[in-house]
Amino acid sequence: MLNKPHGKLRVLFETAPMAYINEQAGGYASDGRRNILDIEPRTLPEPSPAYIGSAAVVRDLERLVSSASPD
Q: Where does the chain have alpha helices with state H?
């Protein structure tokens, strides 16, 4: 993620479909700050980081990212 801070996967075509399937299976998907399914892309190819997995692990990751970010 260091060389791609805004992510590499496109929201509409890659991260959102995976997030939807994962959440239907009881998981959670985040960009590090919010639920991927809550992102409203401004452009068709808008990229986003993606953390997809079990709800507990991804929410822990969100807490770590928010505590490490300067804003």
A: 16-24, 55-68
Q: For the whole model, what pTM was predicted?
A: 0.84
Inter-residue contact 21 to 54 (CB < 8 Å): no
Q: Give pLDDT tens digits for 5-52.
A: 788 899 999 999 999 999 999 999 999 999 999 999 999 999 999 999
- Other Cβ atoms less than 10 A from the Cβ of 48: the count is 22
Q: Do residues 41 and 12 make contact, with C-beta atoms less than 8 angstroms apart?
A: yes
In the chain, domain spans: 9-68
Two tokens at 11?
């929201």
User: Yes or no: is domain 9-68 CATH 2.60.40.10?
Assistant: no
